[in-house]
Write a structure and sequence with these properties.
Strand 3, helix 6 and strand 4 form a beta-alpha-beta unit. By secondary structure, the chain is an alpha+beta fold. Helix content is about 25%, strand content about 30%. Most important serine protease inhibitor in plasma that regulates the blood coagulation cascade. AT-III inhibits thrombin, matriptase-3/TMPRSS7, as well as factors IXa, Xa and XIa. Its inhibitory activity is greatly enhanced in the presence of heparin.
Length: about 450
């Protein structure tokens, strides 16, 4: 039985041209009618694009933003938190978590291009693509392209947010030309033939080397040994890489080693960074959290930190967290002078996505019996399925800023305290999100439960 391995990871920028007529399309200025259609489309019977949005919804759409792009960003955000909760179940309360939900959504959206029947329907529902108010599923790719154009445009010379996609296919097979065309036009994913049948291990090493290159050496060995064998047909790769400088840097002279309280019984020393200045900040006593937003240079990307109050467990915050609640917190923050203390840390996370996706309702894509992917390989409409999906992510936070790839006490040593000022002391487990804040697009999400493990 043939199988398809789907790879999801984090990394860097890749752009290649294609010697086909479709390659002349500028996706950032293209219209939906200018794009080829995938082999199958799905219509959500409960979404009607003719219906006028409510005044509440209309007010939420940012200026100069396509409403459908906004809806896709929100769908990705809801998926991000759903997946985060699945990971939290597996990791337990004291495990670090870091991922790029946007990278994962992109990889499965590329898979959706070749899907039909219940496989297509489940992808649409699990990733909430079916909440976008358009008639059919083929429009999702157009709005993904528009979202990518907005996210990955250059924001500042000290900020890098770049993405790369690629298809690696068995050299002896012919892949659907339409699938290749759309993959390259919308996602920039060119097909590279490899000898999976004859040289599976060498193929695995080549794919891992490509990922490492695109993530500037931060993501290595994404595909573990044994993940590629002679039955592999296709590997899809999405990488995303981010490096940004804080708009307001921390001074290295203000770094002090202090205890981080992993749990009630465990603590460990970490280098804690400090600064007191104005940030977007707010306390939410009813939810038991403080929310702080640290902007990067460039005016578009920020890191959001959600810190439970001393009498609140992080697990309680995670259980109740929804995109609506997170967005409400962020909308309620105000510019406030805050004494901020956060750890300098580095975390790396890797996991299989298959069991998480199945728990969320994506069953048929991973089933040799039920998978329907007729739009990928020419003259090969049955027996193709995704055997496994992998994700690996990296984050480093220091005084200068953050580097992420995929393919954190009221007593300050040596300081006089101003008891009237607000303080944000992340000396216990907290949540973090790296987002593009003009459209609230969650690019990375994580939990820093024990920065001592990898700091």
């Amino acid at each position: 039985m043939f199988q398809m391995n789907c790879l999801v990871c984090l990394g860097g920028l890749w752009i290649l041209s294609m010697a086909l007529a479709h390659a002349t399309i500028d996706i950032c200025s293209a219209k939906p009618k200018g794009l080829p259609l995938p082999v199958c489309v799905y219509r959500n019977p409960n979404v009607h694009d003719e219906a006028k949005p409510s005044s509440e919804t209309a007010e939420q759409v940012p200026d100069s933003t396509n409403p459908r792009v906004w809806e896709l960003s929100q769908a990705n955000g809801r998926f991000a938190l759903s997946l985060f909760k699945q990971l939290a179940k597996d990791k337990g309360a004291e495990g670090n978590i870091f991922m790029s939900p946007l990278s994962i959504s992109t990889a499965f959206a590329m898979t959706k291009l070749g899907a039909c029947n219940s496989t297509l329907e489940q992808i649409m529902k699990v990733f909430e693509f079916d909440t976008i108010k358009e008639k059919t599923s083929d429009q999702v790719h157009f709005f993904f392209a528009k979202l990518n154009c907005r996210l990955y445009r250059k924001k500042h010379n000290t900020v890098e947010l770049v993405s790369a996609n690629r298809l690696f296919g068995e050299k002896s097979l012919t892949f659907n030309e339409n699938y290749q065309n759309i993959s390259e036009i919308v996602y920039g994913a060119k097909l590279l033939p490899l000898h999976f049948k004859e040289k599976p291990e060498m193929s695995r090493q080549k794919i891992n080397a490509w990922v490492s290159e695109k993530t500037k050496g931060k993501i290595n060995e994404t595909l573990p040994e044994g993940s590629i064998d002679s039955t592999t047909i296709l590997v899809l790769v999405n990488t995303i890489y981010f490096k940004g400088q804080w708009k307001k840097k921390f001074d290295k002279a203000d770094v002090t080693e202090l205890p981080f309280h992993v749990s009630e019984k465990e603590k460990c020393p970490v280098p804690m960074m400090y600064q007191e200045t104005k940030f977007q900040y707010q306390r939410f006593p009813e939810d038991g959290v403080k929310v702080l937003e640290l902007p990067y240079n460039g005016g578009g990307i920020s890191m959001v930190l959600v810190l439970p109050t001393e009498n609140t467990k992080l697990s309680e915050v995670e259980t109740q967290l929804t995109l609506k609640k997170l967005s409400g917190w962020l909308n309620a923050t105000t510019e406030t002078t805050v004494a901020v203390q956060i750890p300098r840390f580095r975390i790396e996370d890797s996991f299989s996505l298959k069991d998480k996706m199945e728990a969320m309702g994506l069953h048929h894509l991973f089933s040799a019996e039920h998978s329907s992917l007729p739009g990928m390989v020419a003259n090969f409409t049955k027996g193709l399925y995704v055997s496994e999906a992998y994700h690996k992510a990296f984050l480093e936070v220091n005084e200068e800023g953050s580097e992420a790839a995929g393919a954190t006490a009221l007593a300050f040593l040596g300081r006089s305290l101003n008891l009237n000022r607000e303080s944000f002391v992340a000396n216990r487990p907290f949540l973090l999100f790296i987002r593009e804040f003009t459209i609230n697009a969650i690019i990375f999400a994580g939990r820093v439960a024990n920065p001592c493990k990898s700091s």
